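User:
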Amino acid sequence: MFVIVNGERTETRATLLPELLIELSHANAHVAIAVNEEVVPRASWAATTLSEGDAIEILTPRQGG
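Assistant: Predicted structure:
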């Protein structure tokens, strides 16, 4: 299926959010994630299913000011 990851159309076999993170090499990264403009708490990642056309934003924290 195809999803949109950080604005780019991406083909994936993942049906759950953690599977997508593994495919994208973000499995152990400290990130925040939103699916279809809703933040997904880390405790809910394992139960978050993905569907064709979902928009996923993966955000990494940065330091600075």
